[in-house]
Write a structure and sequence with these properties.
It is a single chain. The protein has 414 residues and is an alpha/beta fold. It folds into two domains: 93-263, no CATH class; 266-414, no CATH class. The protein contains 13 helices and six strands. It has helices at 2-28, 30-45, 67-71, 78-85, 93-101, 161-183, 245-263, 269-282, 290-296, 313-330, 332-340, 345-355, 369-382, and strands at residues 122-129, 134-145, 149-154, 197-202, 211-213, 232-236. Helix 6 (161-183) runs parallel beside helix 7 (245-263) and helix 10 (313-330) crosses helix 11 (332-340). The longest helix is centred in the first third of the chain and has 27 residues, at 2-28.
Length: 414
């Protein structure tokens, strides 16, 4: 009896160990098998019949809200009207310091008396731990200088000089001109009256962040005591290596934020983040992978950005895919207008389309933001350039993940 019991326990234990091993394998290979799983579900779950000859199939009939039906929606309260017509002012730390702290006559710039800097120069910088929102000073040494950038290395951080040179020259020769050509210029010569962008490679930027740009670094220290008073972004040396594609993607992402802040200082977070992810694509680097997180949980509000940093992953993905689709569908000129438009969010999308006279070639009607969002949502499910006029596809991003069903209804009766 005891031997049999021991044997059963041994078999059960062995199965549990095997199951744990399988779990570890599944977790370890998650990034690798994710796309295969998505593709399998989509290909077997979508009931579409696509002509193998490549002949375009008819565009699905979509019931879109008309202007008259929208007009029938009554505004329930006066408060809603006030909110809809309220203008959101730009966050101006100098104005806030004057009104709330009584600090008058804050200059717009804070000239750096020591520029141009030379390799080997030492300087102290404020670095914010984004996990705790606590700022502390670190010392860094200037490691490399290009025409438009300084790369500062935190003292004590080990690095390869060749990798540093490659990172600096890649930013100067590729990321800087490519990003500026599409999104526009950053503030230059900027707060410090030095045309160089500061790239600070240090530790202590936070537990879950690869890098950051803070607009507060572009204001006078009288307005914000932890301002570095430089056009600067921080690379987290705890997670990023120099001369690495992921690092180049972060540089493109943060540089777009720097540009966008200057072009439109109070833009909605989801728009700015979507454009920063788009900057990675335009620079020719692999996407961050957040679009795959969105594809497996697509039931998200596009124009929302959560405060919880652990929940932002799929929102990065949705914002990126929308901006990639908008660029592919509408072209460079309209997309670039959206970057600098003074309005924000979907309202700016509406106004840009209206100002450019965008018309749907299939219906002959004006295109609104709601139309683009609806077609974009269908694109994530269909991903087929042979449907309709080819609008349900990312021609500029053919590796976009295919979304799959999150719910299935067998009976559509009310």
């Amino acid at each position: 009896m005891d031997d049999r019991k021991t044997l059963i326990i041994g078999i059960v234990s062995g199965c549990l160990i095997l199951a744990c091993i399988c779990i570890l394998i599944a977790i370890g290979g998650g990034a690798y098998v994710l796309r295969e799983v998505v593709l399998e579900v989509v290909e077997t779950g979508v009931g579409l019949s696509i002509d193998a000859s490549g002949t375009p199939t008819p565009t699905p009939h979509i019931i879109r809200p008309t202007q008259s039906s929208q007009a029938q929606v009554a505004v329930g309260t006066g408060t809603l009207r006030v909110l809809e017509n309220a203008g959101i002012p730009e966050n101006n730390p100098a104005d806030l310091a004057q009104r709330l702290l009584g600090i008058d006559d804050i200059p717009e710039t804070y000239p750096d008396p020591n520029w141009p800097h030379q390799v080997g120069d030492q300087q102290s910088f404020w670095v914010t731990d984004t996990s705790t929102n606590i700022s502390s000073q670190v010392s860094a040494t200037l490691g490399y200088v290009t025409e438009h950038a300084y790369i500062w290395i935190g003292n004590g951080i080990q690095y390869d000089q060749g990798e540093l040179a490659s990172t600096a020259e890649t930013f100067e020769d590729h990321i800087y001109p490519t990003t500026r050509a599409f999104f526009g210029s950053e503030w230059t010569p900027g707060i410090d009256e030095d045309p160089h962008i500061y790239i600070l490679y240090v530790q202590g930027a936070g537990s879950f962040v690869a890098g950051y740009f803070s607009a507060l670094d572009s204001v006078h220290p009288l307005a914000h005591e932890y301002s570095n008073a430089h056009e600067i972004f921080v690379l987290n040396a705890e997670y990023l290596r120099l001369d690495n594609e992921e690092t180049y993607g972060v540089l493109a992402h943060e540089f777009q934020h720097m540009i966008h802040w200057y072009q439109d200082r109070n833009e909605s977070s989801w728009v700015s983040e979507g454009f920063s992810e788009l900057a990675i694509l335009l620079n020719g680097y692999d996407s961050s992978g957040f679009d795959f997180l969105y594809a497996i949980q697509p039931d998200l509000q596009l124009n929302d950005w959560p405060n919880d940093e652990f929940s932002t992953g799929p929102h990065y993905g949705s914002s990126f895919l929308f901006m990639a689709y908008f660029l592919d569908r509408m072209g460079d000129e309209i997309t670039q207008m959206l970057v600098s438009h003074p309005e924000n969010g979907l309202k700016s999308v509406d106004l840009v389309l209206e100002e450019m006279g965008a018309v749907d070639p299939l219906t002959g009607e004006s295109i609104r933001a709601d139309d683009v969002v609806l077609d974009w949502a269908l694109t994530n499910y269909l991903l087929d350039e042979h449907v309709g006029d080819g609008r349900f596809f990312y021609h500029n991003y053919p590796y976009a993940p295919e979304a799959f069903e999150t719910e299935t209804f067998q009976d559509c009766t009310p």
